[in-house]
Fold these 2 entries.
Entry 1:
Amino acid sequence: MTRISDIFPVKGLIVSCQALEHEPLHGGDTMAKMARAAVQSGAIGIRTNGVPDIVAIKKEVNVPVIGLIKRDIPGSAIFITPTLDEVKAIVSAKAEIIALDVTNREERLESVKPLIEYAHLRGVLVMADISTFEEGLAAEKLGVDFIGTTLSGYTPYSTQQEGPDLVLIQELSKLVNIPVVAEGRIWTPEDAAKAKNAGASYVVVGSAITRPQLITSRYVKAVSNFND
Ligand SMILES: CC(=O)N[C@H](C=O)[C@@H](O)[C@H](O)[C@H](O)COP(=O)(O)O
């Protein structure tokens, strides 16, 4: 059975290269270039959304890929790899790891079991995107390979804050026996160092590196009082 330490023998930074259809950088070519830039500078892995981007990135760089598929299902709040269809597509695209929602909503902690099993039977590891400490513990019990704090702040009952959820990273890192991935709203190298020092084995940074429109708006906001 493959383990996370086989896939990522060293700990480090994983860069999330994602641009949805409405975003300016949407497209496999652009995301592959983003991934190349990230790997050139020392990223140990890439997280990305959708089969075309997974395939383009795997052609471009030689580091493990965490694949997910964002899909909106009417009437459901679960959008990160919601069903077995997406899991199958990610396995076919040959991502080494599948990221999926493991939150305590809509009976997900039960319905996600066959998705985890499908991936594992095909030698693909599973990253659980969770939003609270309890969900992290539940994810470990479900047999996932590592846990990301990705959805903290994105479920109505989780901590809402501007920066990374360092408390969650720290509590989970102390209590679970699988690696914890710090992910979500890590905007600065200082945030990344704090996440690492809180006990995370891996740190995922997305928007702060790969979403120029969001980066720009932070700078615009910072100088918005120029003419006062
Ligand atoms: C909540 C959600 O949909 N998160 C997504 C999960 O894949 C991505 O849109 C984020 O960019 C990713 O988690 C990295 O986080 P940040 O971009 O904050 O560094």
Entry 2:
Amino acid sequence: MTTLPTVLITGASSGIGATYARRFASRGHDLVLVARDQARMENLAARLREEGNVRVDVLPADLTQAADVARVEQRLREDERIGILVNNAGMAQSGGFVQQDGAAIERVIALNTTAPTRLAAAVAPRFAQAGSGAIVNIGSVVGFAPEFGMSVYGASKAFVLFLSQGLHLELSPKGVYVQAVLPAGTRTEIWQRAGIDAATLPPMMDVEELVDAALGGFDRREAVTIPPLHVAARWDALEGARQGLLADIRQEQAAERYRAR
Ligand SMILES: NC(=O)C1=CN([C@@H]2O[C@H](COP(=O)(O)OP(=O)(O)OC[C@H]3O[C@@H](n4cnc5c(N)ncnc54)[C@H](OP(=O)(O)O)[C@@H]3O)[C@@H](O)[C@H]2O)C=CC1
Ligand SMILES: CC(=O)[C@H](N)C(=O)O
């Protein structure tokens, strides 16, 4: 019998992360749950153990704190049963750029970019050595949309997409699967935590629908999964335009329109 890899999920105490935990447990995977709220994760863990005969460990960590990130990195390096990392923990923010203070900006960047990058870096060498493993990074369609007026959050999610695409190119030839998942508005606590009244926003996707679609992309080994994108050809066109732009960049000379007359 093949042993399924253990899945370490960050932000597993609520929303998308807790739903991933339920879905992976129902597929028979053991889990390591990471977030700050230990009691909430213990509750979820107890339910999953009861329902699914799976092993569930709880690893409390504040991923904006370097020492806590280091403990999770250590677990990822040393626990060889862990074969899937879901980098899901994240936070949004309300208000425009001029309303953000430095500490709030730093928290968003630490949680949404530094932590997932460090956790991926902790596990990637072991996965590459083994020739297997998967890293799932939760981005957002906001990363495409400076128009949404969430510049720091959107930039952090653009980073997640870029990082995922870079890791996909580097690691897939070594047998490691990297997936970026880009949800749009999904009904979770993220809105309330950011001080945004979700009732004032257009209708959103249900969290189970989002995670089931993301897992559909995972099973098909998609590099980028965008559950709310209805016309898949739009993504292919964007990628095609990007490749076309790269083909027209020539580093030895400025473009004609910038040359002195
Ligand atoms: N819901 C949406 O509309 C969308 C969400 N996303 C992304 O999905 C991901 C999950 O968000 P979602 O489920 O919606 O939101 P939730 O607020 O429900 O979940 C966020 C999770 O992250 C954890 N978390 C927050 N701060 C920290 C921290 N400092 N250290 C460790 N864990 C932390 C929370 O747990 P705890 O408080 O216990 O630490 C919680 O488990 C995020 O990356 C978000 O950006 C992307 C697009 C749309
Ligand atoms: C707060 C948001 O904007 C949301 N989580 C998203 O990424 O769509």
